[in-house]
Amino acid sequence: MTQTASPARRAGTPVPPRLTTARGAALYIGALLGPGLLLLPGLAAAAAGPASLLAWIALLALSALFAVVFAALGRGFPSAGGVIGYVTAGLGAPAGLAAGWSFLAGVVTGAPVVCLIGASYVTRLAGGGQPARAAIAALLLLAVLVLAAGGLRTSATAQLLLVGLLIAVVVTAVAGAAGAARAANWTPFAPHGWLAIGHAAATLMLSFAGWEAVAPLTTQFTDPSRQLARVAAIALAVTSALYLGLAVVTIGVLGPHAATMVPLAELLQRAVGPAGTAVAAVAAVVLTLGTTNAYINGAAIMARQLSGTGPADRTGGEPRRPAPRFLAAIAGSGLLLITLYGVGVVSPASLVAIPTALFLAVYLASMAAAVRVLRGPARRAAVPAAAAVAAVLACCGWALAVPALVAAAVAGRRWTRGGRRRPLPAPRNS
Predict the structure, then answer these.
(1) For 32-149, where are the E strands, in sequence order?
(2) CATH code for position 256
(3) What distances in angstroms separate CA 245 from CA 21, 252, 389, one per listed residue?
(4) Domain that residue 199 falls in
(5) What is the pTM of this model?
(6) pLDDT tens-digit map of 337-357
(7) Can you name the residues that pair with 19 across neighbouring β-strands?
């Protein structure tokens, strides 16, 4: 993408409104928050007990470094096209392709996880065990695929409304249940040992992916240098308050029962009574459908970019519907993962580990690229960020094989084509 004026703009077509700081912050927060908050506090508590709070704090500190680095990448490479361009600029086209396909794979494998979250809250309300949860998750996934095949997209405004719903649910649960907190629930503090904090951090990382999303919007700000810093600060403050509030109340109120797949339902039941379970279930289903639809449509665009097929409609713009083969691939992989969960082969933590490892690999490549192409404070922030991401990635265990397989597949594809694949263009500094 270049920054030259389009023919329509040269002909006098009104220029789209610039992003305000408030709108940019809302988009940033929307990229960071997702349905993972409905599940991950319980998985983190299961991994490390009350000590999982330290994992939340450590990842929030890491988020501050991410905010600095990605804001600098957005200012320095405004036409980079996101993480693919950033990694390409610092580590070369092969690494950029591997990062792009890893990011895409993370989105695709994250879709069944989101559907499982919604299903868990439904079965918490209506009853049913693990097979019923898997069946509902499969139905949710198929419903979203049908919507996507029909060309329905989740607009930016709708996504922000969904994030607003999530914030409202979390705030209600935290504020309403906080009075039931007990000091005894914080002991023993590290029942599974201190190393378990690393495993909790690896699980929670899925809720911290999204810092890269706003950087490509840099050119839409009136004053990027000033506004990006404010946007990042606002997003960090809001997410920190939500994450820490949720983490503290989940442990303080639920105690040994915090290791549940529906922590928000448990908190809402204490906050507003029996109706809280129904509220949580409705919110979870709405968030599941809306968020997964956005994931699939965004992933379809990225898949076309990576495969080189480009726009496919007659107007030259992005096609309204994802390709049938792409939807079939999501259905096949998603239903396989959900079925494996339903028959007890994999656990929820294992399902979360797959997209988490993929996103961590992308972030590690982005931080390594930033060390090479940035200077000053941003480069100094990228160095400890890269080390921290590598440490968390090391805690992913067997899931490390997933990004390795993606990288190997990308390398093999380039090799079998005899190097004739056109490399991604390196972004230019503005």
Answers:
(1) none
(2) 1.20.1740.10
(3) 25, 10, 24
(4) 21-216+243-415
(5) 0.85
(6) 999 999 999 999 999 999 999
(7) 221
